[in-house]
Amino acid sequence: MDRYIGTKIILAEPLSELDANFQGLVRSVTDIESDGSSRPGYKVVYEDGYTSWSPKETFERAYRRVTEAELDLLFATSGR
Question: Is residue 3 one of the residues assigned to a domain?
Answer without folding.
Answer: no
